[in-house]
C-alpha cells in the first residue's frame, strides 16, 4: 500500500518536473533534438557540480536556478596586447594570443593586458544534455559553454551567459560549437562578451537551430569604439545547416552574423536593431536565405564585400523560395536602415531539399513579437 507521505513525494516530483521541462521543440534543421530526454533533473549548487554534470557521459537534464560565477576562479593572466581599433577608452584591446598582434596587426600600438583566465575557454558540454534555467535565475558568469569533438544532441534553453572579459578580444566566447550535431540554443541571453556571442567554428557542426535568443551587444568596450559589440555570431563550419529564427540581435556593429565555410543558413523572422556597422557578412562558402526579418536602425544590413550567396527575398521573387522551402518566402522589412540587396543565384536552394525547414511569418509583426518573446524569462 502507498503511504500518504509517498504520495506527497510523488506529487512534488511531478510538479517540479513539469516546472523545469524543455519548453517547445526545435524548429528547422535541429528538429528532433532531445538533449537529456527524460533523465531525472539535477540541480547543480556549485561551479564544480555544474562542470561535472555538463561534461560527464550521462544523459542529463541540468536545471540552473542560481548564478554560477567563474570570474577569478582560475586567476588572472597578464601579457602583451595591441590596440588595432584605437586607443580610446571605449575601444576593445586585443590579447596577443599566439602572436595574433604581430601576425595580423603589426602596425597597431602595443600595450599590456590583464584578464580573467576563466573566460578564455568555455565549459565542455558532452552529448545528450539539456541545460535549462528557471525564470531568469540561471546565469553563467565569466565563462562560456563549449560543444566540440563530435558532441551531439544538446539543448541550451533559458539561461544567461555574461561578463566574459568584455574589454578583451580573445578573452572568450559565450557559446562555441565546433564539430557537433543536433544542437538547439533557445531563449538564451548573451551579453558583455570578449569575442563571439555564438561561434560555429570550422569543424562540421551539422544540424543547429538558434532560436529566440537575445544577443545583446551593448558594451563599454568594442572594436568599433562606440558601445556596440562587433563580434556577434560567426558561422564558418565545414558542413553546417543553421536555422536562425526569432532572435533579437541588437546593439552590435558587425558579424551579426558572419557566414562562410560550407554553411547553409536559413535566417528567418529575426529582429536586427541598433547596429552601427553591418549585420550579414557573407564570405565564400556561405549560402543564405534571409526572409521575414525586420531591420531597424541597422547601418548596413549586409556588408559590402559579398563572396558567398545570399537571397534576400526581394518582393518580385518571393515565389522563388518554393523550390527550397516548399513555400514562398516572406519579404524582409527595413526601417531607418541601409539596403539589403543580395545575390541572384538560387542554385544552392537545392541544398534545402529534404531538410526540416522553419516556418515564417510576415516581417511586419516581427519587431514587436521578438522583443516580447526573445531572451530569458519569457517561457
Ligand atoms: C543601443 O544602441 C542605440 C543606438 O545605436 C542606443 O540608442 C541605445 O541606447 C543602445 N542601447 C543600450 C542598452 O545601450
Describe this structure in words.
The chain has 379 residues and is mainly β. It has a single domain, classed as Single-stranded right-handed beta-helix, Pectin lyase-like (Pectate Lyase C-like, 3 Solenoid). The protein has five helices and 27 strands. The chain has helices at 4-20, 47-55, 100-104, 322-325, 366-373; strands spanning 41-42, 60-64, 67-69, 76-82, 93-95, 110-116, 123-124, 129-133, 139-141, 145-157, 160-164, 168-169, 175-186, 189-193, 198-200, 206-211, 214-216, 233-235, 240-245, 248-250, 258-259, 263-268, 271-282, 286-291, 294-302, 309-311, 333-335. It has a 23-stranded parallel β-sheet that branches. It has a four-stranded mixed β-sheet with strand order 6-4-5-12, with no helix packed on it. Helix 2 links the parallel strand 1 and strand 2. It is globular and about 55 Å long. The model is unreliable at 9-18 (pLDDT under 50). The structure holds 2-acetamido-2-deoxy-beta-D-glucopyranose (NAG). The site of 2-acetamido-2-deoxy-beta-D-glucopyranose has 4 residues, from strand 23.
